[in-house]
Amino acid sequence: MPHARSFSDPLEARLADFPKQYLGGHEVLVADEAGKLPAGYESAEAVVWSSYPVDAALINSLPELRFMQRIGLTRARGDAHTALARGIPVSVVPFGVSDRVALHTLTLTLSALRKVVQGHHAVHVGVNPDGLEEKEQVGATQTVNWVRWPDVDTLNDKTVGIIGFGEIGACFARMLPPFNCRVLYNKRSLLTPQQEAYFGVEYAALDDLLRRSDIVATFVPYSEESRKMLGAREFALMKPGAIFVNTGRGNTTDEAALVEALKAGRIRAAGLDVFSVEPLPLSHPLQDLDNVTLTPHTAGGIQGWMNTFERIAENLRRVEAGLPVYAPLHPEDPEPFGSR
User: How far is CA 315 from the centre of its chain?
Assistant: First the structure.
């Protein structure tokens, strides 16, 4: 197993104990400051990095190198293809909480489409419009969808629009191929054709994305520029049956306009993990809607970094055992956004 592992980027204070906790039994070298490699890095057999500009010169200066771990699908820098050319495996895992937020976004999307929250409530209150007899179900049954809802939907073959295509948006896009979705994205700087092909996405201007999408998911971070960027005008552009999901920041949405759009049926449903005011007040109008799934800002959290370090540890075990690494980089894969 590699005995010297070099973290080429400083660790956040809250992650300082993670190398010892997850990567015990190895000498771990951690950079003290951004842009400066840790002392003794020349002897490293494994390199973990995100923002450090890894390049051929660095890779070729490490004679003992056996494995490289990039943290970040998009928000990383550097090019490790030289390592692949040397037969050194390289793995790419999401940055911190990103894939957890993406998974939560998918969960909210499916909950809205499948009416999970409404179904839970319907079972609890005994919705049974046909007055079906309560009896053991054997063989063919008449109780499929006993609430008789005509609009329990699927994600299959839908058009999904992603606003704010960074690390989380990229993680979300990679979860959608099994559903055969068409995926549109909007961001300030366009991806390269190679990156678009890799993530299976197509650029669309914001208004076009809103008009065409069955599901609109926003991951836009908060700034004064993005404050309430999604309001009455934008919701009016969306399809009447569209679903809106926000796991980015609450203040990027005009919540009053969203409430009105949901009440009027201009959009079908929403899934929200973030709000302008948190915790969400019990008196907030969103609390009164039955076509909204609300969660208490639980999409992210420190557990995302726990997952990252668990993946690093697993890859080191695989290298030791001579097995293929988890989430390998392939020669044809594009460089991350930070390398442009």
Answer: 21
Residues 132 and 83: their CA atoms lie apart, in Å, by 65
- Check if 278 is active-site: yes
Q: How many C-beta neighbours within 10 Å does residue 156 have? A: 10
User: For the whole prediction, is pTM greater than 0.85?
Assistant: yes
Looking at the structure, do residues 43 and 103 belong to the same domain, yes or no? no
For 125, 159, 162, 273, 299, the CA distances from 296, given in Å and listed in that order, are 24, 27, 22, 6, 8
42, 64, 278, 310: the active-site residue: 278
Residue 14 annotated among the catalytic residues of the structure: no
Q: Confidence band (pLDDT; 50, 70, 90) for 1?
A: very low
pLDDT at 6: 84
Supply the mean pLDDT for the chain. 95
- Tell me the DSSP string of 225-286: TTTT-B-HHHHHHS-TT-EEEE-S-GGGB-HHHHHHHHHHTSS-EEEES--SSSSPPTTSGG
Catalytic annotation, pick one of 182, 211, 284, 297: 297
Domains: count for the chain: 2
Instruction: Output b/e per residue, 24-54; b: 16+ Cβ within 10 A.
Output: eebebbbbeeeeebbeebeebbbbbbbbbeb
| 134 is a domain residue | no
pLDDT tens-digit readout, 122-176:
999 999 999 999 999 988 888 999 999 999 999 999 999 999 999 999 999 999 9
Q: Is 297 a catalytic residue?
A: yes
From the list 66, 75, 249, 266, the catalytic residue is: 249
Range of the domain at 224: 98-120+142-294
pLDDT by residue (tens digit) across 291-335? 999 999 999 999 999 999 999 999 999 999 999 999 999 999 998
Q: Which residues, at least 6 apart from 308, have a Cβ–Cβ distance to it below 8 Å?
A: 71, 93, 94, 95, 96
